[in-house]
Amino acid sequence: MRIGVVTFPGTLDDHDARRAVRIAGGVAVPLWHGDADLHRVDAVILPGGFSYGDYLRAGAISRFAPVMDAIVPAAQGGLPVLGICNGFQVLCESHLLPGALIRNDHRKFNCKDQVLRVENASTDWTSDYTEGEEITIVLKNGEGGFVADERTLDELEGEGRVAFRYVGDNPNGSYRAIAGITNERGNVVGLMPHPEHCVEDLYGPSTDGLGFFTSVLKQVVNA
Amino acid sequence: MGNVVVDVMLKSEILDPQGQAVAGALPRLGFDQFTDVRQGKRFVLTVDGEVTDEVLAAARQAAEKLLSNPVIEDVVSVHPAEPQA
């Protein structure tokens, strides 16, 4: 079970993402932004960080990196892809997911333990959770406000494509407290909080993030 | 050598925290007549030679594809730069 983790210039959380894959029992395969070869991986993680310094817009330049030329059609064909934080921004800029992430409404960088409600436990990345389950993982971002037009938001809600919602105070002004979404097929998931930081005791508020990685590993085995 | 200017603004319904920060600072400097501030982006694209219709068309494509995100932003203007004085 080979899970690719992409490194762009300015990516920060690729090592933690690879570590999370290994702890969940998978083989982590480093993927390089300039290499359009996916090296036979069974799934891809776009990790957090500040790719290309967030220049222009967060994720806007990464979206045109050679590796994305391979990931976009593969994701459209069903390859499981998870975008975390900056990776979520890349997925939105790539139009693999709708909407966009803008600067937090309070204009401050957030770094906190965040409670999320799992709204959709049937995606490739959430099947080890149960619908309605509350998990606590790390949230850290400056541009985490999820926005989309009303019609898109209604579509996401109506089709069960809101994957995660913030519980308690809305930490960044995201419309309808949306923390993460999925595509129609459930193979592409993006969220702002960081499950990969919450897979081991003593390193964070919980090990609630591990389910993302065990979910996709089962998905890949069953595929 | 010619230049094309591309102006991009956040859509009016999208919150502009940077603009709000600027709006909050202006009254402290005595500028209390401005009730709102929206902050945008200006790109200056340089070409060898004249700014032809083809150059402008390419600039419009670049503006839609990379320089703006249509989910949150509008390309409000793509025009040749005024000749340098």
Structural class of chain A: alpha/beta
Average pLDDT of chain A, to the nearest integer? 96
The low-confidence runs of chain B, each spanning 5 or more residues with pLDDT under 50, are none
**Can you list the strand order of the major beta sheet of chain B?**
2-1-3
The tally of beta strands of chain A, per DSSP, is 11
Strand content of chain B: 25-35%
Q: State the CATH class of chain B.
A: Alpha Beta
Structural descriptors:
A: 223 residues; alpha/beta; Rossmann fold; two-stranded antiparallel ribbon; 5 helices; 26% strand; B: 85 residues; alpha+beta; Mth169, Chain: A; three-stranded antiparallel beta sheet; 3 strands; 28% strand
Descriptive overview:
The complex is a heterodimer of chains A (223) and B (85). With 223 residues, chain A is an alpha/beta fold. In chain A, the strands form two sheets. A nine-stranded mixed β-sheet of chain A has the order 2-1-3-4-11-10-9-6-7, with helices on both faces. A two-stranded antiparallel ribbon of chain A has the order 5-8. Chain B is of the alpha+beta class and 85 residues long. Chain B has one domain: Phosphoribosylformylglycinamidine synthase subunit PurS (Mth169, Chain: A, 2-Layer Sandwich), CATH 3.30.1280. Chain B contains two helices and three strands. Chain B has a three-stranded antiparallel β-sheet, covered by helices on one side. The radius of gyration of chain B is 16 Å and the shape is elongated. The interface between A and B is medium-sized, with 20 and 13 residues.
